[in-house]
């Protein structure tokens, strides 16, 4: 196992579980709608960022095993943020 394996294998749904635990005592009234809107946006950003970081870690793990692939990925392929589906499909 690698250094990143715990992070890679951790389900993104853990973010939802953590949020559920934190917000359990909050009320669900109409006065809380602006706060809940910000919370939902924050959850979405955390989940999206976690997926992008997982893709980068997977690329790095593959590149530590296969040096030719490392050269191909990191010298000729623009990784960007691994947020587009075309970037994700290049990881084999």
Blueprint of the fold:
Blueprint: H1 5-9, H2 13-23, H3 33-65, H4 67-76, H5 85-89
Helix pairs in contact: 3-4
Tell me what the structure shows:
The protein is built from 5 helices and no strands. It has helices at 5-9, 13-23, 33-65, 67-76, 85-89. Helix 3 packs across helix 4 (67-76). The two termini are 19 Å apart. 1% of the residues are buried.
Distance between the termini: 19 Å
> What's the alpha carbon Rg, rounded to whole Å?
18 Å
User: β content, as a range?
Assistant: under 5%
Average pLDDT works out at: 82
Topology as H/E string?
Answer: HHHHH
Structural class per helix/strand content?
Answer: mainly alpha
Low-confidence stretches: none
Question: Looking at the structure, what is the overall shape?
Answer: elongated
Percent range of helical residues: 55-70%
The biggest sheet, with number of strands, parallel, antiparallel or mixed sense and barrel status, is: none
How many DSSP-defined strands?
0
| Helical stretch tally | 5
Please summarize what this structure is.
This protein has helices at 5-9, 13-23, 33-65, 67-76, 85-89.
Main attributes?
single chain; 92 residues; mainly alpha; 70% helix
């Amino acid at each position: 196992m690698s250094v990143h394996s715990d992070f890679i294998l951790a389900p993104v749904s853990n973010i939802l579980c953590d949020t559920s635990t934190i917000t359990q005592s909050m009320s669900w009234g109409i006065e809380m709608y602006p706060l809940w809107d910000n919370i939902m946006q924050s959850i979405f950003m955390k989940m999206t960022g976690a997926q992008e970081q997982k893709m980068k870690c997977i690329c790095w793990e593959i590149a530590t095993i296969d040096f030719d692939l490392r050269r191909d990925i990191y010298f000729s392929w623009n990784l960007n943020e691994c947020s587009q589906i075309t970037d994700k499909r290049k990881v084999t």
